[in-house]
Design goal:
With about 130 residues, the protein is of the alpha+beta class. It has three helices and six strands; from the N terminus they run H-H-E-E-H-E-E-E-E. The protein has a single domain, classed as Roll (Nuclear Transport Factor 2, Chain: A). About 20% of the residues are buried.
Length: about 130
C-alpha cells in the first residue's frame, strides 16, 4: 500500500471514529470548508444535500440528536483511487420513539488535499426493529 493509500485509510478510520465518538469538532476537521454531505434520505435524487461548513455541521449535529447512541460498527474501508474511497459500516441506534435501527450502509468519500470534499451516504431502507433493550 502506498503512502497516499495509507493516508486515505487513516482518514476513513478517523472519520468513523469521530462518528462513533459523536465528536462533531473532530468530524468537521476532516471536511473541507466548502464540503458537501449528501444524506441517504431526502426529497431529491441525491437524498438531501448539505453544502458548506454551516449546513454540513448542522446536518451532522442533527444525526447525533436524533440517535444519541448511534454507532457505526464493523468498518471496512477501501481506497478506490487517489481521491476516492469507500467506507462500509453497520449503523445501530435508538430513535426518539424507542425503536431500534440496524442497517448496513456505506459512504463514498471524495478527498482532496487530505480533506473530505464530498460524503455521499447510502444505507439500506430497513424499518426500525422494536424497542431498545438495556
Amino acid at each position: 500500500m502506498s503512502e497516499h493509500e495509507e493516508a486515505l485509510m487513516a482518514l476513513m478510520v478517523r472519520h468513523i471514529n469521530a462518528w462513533n465518538n459523536h465528536d462533531l469538532e473532530a468530524l468537521m476537521q476532516l471536511f473541507a470548508t466548502d464540503g458537501v454531505f449528501e444524506a441517504s434520505g431526502g426529497p431529491d435524487v441525491e437524498g438531501q444535500r448539505f453544502e458548506g461548513e454551516t449546513e454540513v455541521r448542522a446536518a451532522f449535529a442533527s444525526v447525533f440528536e436524533r440517535m444519541p447512541d448511534a454507532h457505526w460498527g464493523g468498518g471496512r474501508h477501501h481506497v478506490i483511487s487517489p481521491e476516492y474511497c469507500v467506507s462500509e459500516w453497520t449503523l445501530t441506534g435508538t430513535l426518539a420513539d424507542g425503536s431500534r435501527l440496524e442497517v448496513n450502509g456505506c459512504d463514498f468519500l471524495t478527498v482532496h488535499e487530505g480533506l473530505i470534499r464530498r460524503k455521499n451516504s447510502y444505507r439500506k431502507q430497513r424499518p426500525p426493529t422494536g424497542q431498545r433493550t438495556n
